[in-house]
Structures are given as C-alpha cells and as structure tokens.
Amino acid sequence: MLNQATDTYPANASQMYIQVTDATTSYARALELGATSIMQPNLRPHGEQMAGIIDPSGNTWWIASSAN
Q1: pLDDT tens digits, one per residue of 27-65
Q2: What's 40's domain CATH number?
Q3: In-domain check, residue 19
Q4: Per its UniProt record, what InterPro entries does this chain match (predicted)?
C-alpha cells in the first residue's frame, strides 16, 4: 500500500520498479506532478527504455518499458 506521508505516519523512503507502456511519457508526467529526475529516459543494455524519479514523499521509482 502506498500512502501520503503525514505527521503521524512519516515517509519511509523505498525504491520501486514499474513496467509501463511508455516510460518517456510516464517520466514526463511524473515531473509535471512534482517528481524530481534522477535519470532521464534512455535505452538500457538489457533492452528496456528506463528512467528514474523521486516522488515528493522521497520514494524512488524506476520506470521501464519495452524498447520494441
């Protein structure tokens, strides 16, 4: 379960990896919604388009999609 951090329940930063249809579009949308970039979308050696962001609660998200 993911939730917004509060004074009662502070954030516990974590890392998540998600597969999406289009990593570049998802990355751009995340930035529009307040995320901070840690890796711009790029083609990785294992054949995926991948990007990284940190959300406003401090969680790291690795966003990937098939490069095909």
Answers
A1: 999 999 999 999 999 999 989 999 999 998 888 999 999
A2: 3.10.180.10
A3: yes
A4: Glyas_Bleomycin-R_OHBP_Dase
